UniProtKB/TrEMBL annotation:
Protein name: Guanylate kinase
InterPro entries named among the record's database cross-references: GK/Ca_channel_bsu (IPR008145), Guanylate_kin-like_dom (IPR008144), Guanylate_kinase (IPR017665), Guanylate_kinase_CS (IPR020590), P-loop_NTPase (IPR027417)
Pfam families tied to this protein: Guanylate_kin
Taxonomic placement: Bacteria, Pseudomonadati, Rhodothermota, Rhodothermia, Rhodothermales
Main localization, broad class: cytoplasm
PROSITE patterns: GUANYLATE_KINASE_1, GUANYLATE_KINASE_2
Binding site for ATP: 11-18
Source organism of this protein record: Rhodothermus marinus
Entry keyword set: ATP-binding, Cytoplasm, Kinase, Nucleotide-binding, Transferase
Length: 189
C-alpha cells in the first residue's frame, strides 16, 4: 500500500482559497481534487460531480450511516459537507489529493493521516478585508454574509493547529508560498 499524500487547504470563506486551490492543481497536474458532498444548493455555475456532489439531506445521511465519509461537518446550520472515502482512497505520492475543507474537517484529516497530510491555513489579512471581499463577491445575502463572518472569527482561533499559515495579502505571493509548501511536502521521502 503506497502512503497517501493529502494536501488540505482551509480558509474562511472569501480568503481566496478557491483561487489558490486552482493554481495548486495547475502546478501539480497529477494532483486530483477531492470533490466533497454537500447539502447546500449549487451556486450559479457550479457543477454536480465537479465542484461538489450536491445531495439531499436524506441521501447525505444515508452515506453517513454507510460509513462512506472520512469526515463530515455541519459547516453552517442545516448545511452538511463531507469528504467521501472514495475521493481519497487512491491518494498516493504519485497522485496526491487536494482537499478544500473547513477547519474542523482539516484537523480531523490531520488526526487521521498525520504526516501524510499537509494542512495549510489560508488567512485573510484581517476580518475587515474578508468582509469586503465577501461583499464584492456578492454570492451571499446579508444574513449568510454575517454567518460567514461569524464563522471566520471562530476559524481564525484554530490557525495554530495547522502545519502552515499563509496570509493572503496578495494573491500572487500567497500562491507562490503555497506552491512552495506543497512542493516540499510532496518531495519529502
Ligand atoms: P462553500 O459553501 O463556500 O462552498 O463552503 C463552505 C465551507 O465548507 C468552506 O470552508 C469549505 O472549505 C467547507 N467544506 C467544503 N467541503 C467540505 C468537506 O468535505 N468537509 C468539511 N469539513 N468542510 C467542507
Amino acid at each position: 500500500m503506497p502512503e497517501p499524500r493529502l494536501v488540505v487547504l482551509t480558509a474562511p470563506s472569501g480568503a481566496g482559497k478557491t483561487s489558490i486551490a486552482r493554481r495548486v492543481l495547475q502546478a501539480f497536474p497529477n494532483m486530483r481534487f477531492s470533490v466533497s458532498a454537500t447539502t447546500r444548493p449549487p451556486r450559479p455555475g457550479e457543477r454536480n460531480g465537479v465542484d461538489y456532489y450536491f445531495l439531499s439531506e436524506e441521501a447525505f445521511r444515508e452515506l453517513i450511516r454507510d460509513g462512506q465519509f472520512v469526515e463530515y461537518e455541519e459547516v453552517y446550520p442545516g448545511r452538511l459537507y463531507g469528504t467521501l472515502r472514495s475521493e481519497i482512497d487512491a491518494a498516493s505520492r504519485a497522485h496526491p489529493v487536494l482537499l478544500d475543507i473547513d477547519v474542523k474537517g482539516a484537523l480531523r484529516i490531520k488526526e487521521r493521516f498525520g504526516e501524510e497530510a499537509l494542512a495549510i491555513f489560508i488567512k485573510p489579512p484581517s476580518l475587515e478585508v474578508l468582509a469586503d471581499r465577501l461583499r464584492t463577491r456578492g454570492t451571499e445575502n446579508a444574513a449568510a454574509l454575517a454567518e460567514r463572518l461569524e464563522r471566520a472569527r471562530m476559524e481564525l482561533t484554530y490557525e495554530d493547529r495547522f502545519d502552515a499559515v499563509v496570509v493572503n495579502d496578495d494573491l500572487e505571493r500567497a500562491t507562490a508560498e503555497t506552491l512552495n509548501l506543497v512542493r516540499s511536502f510532496l518531495s519529502r521521502p
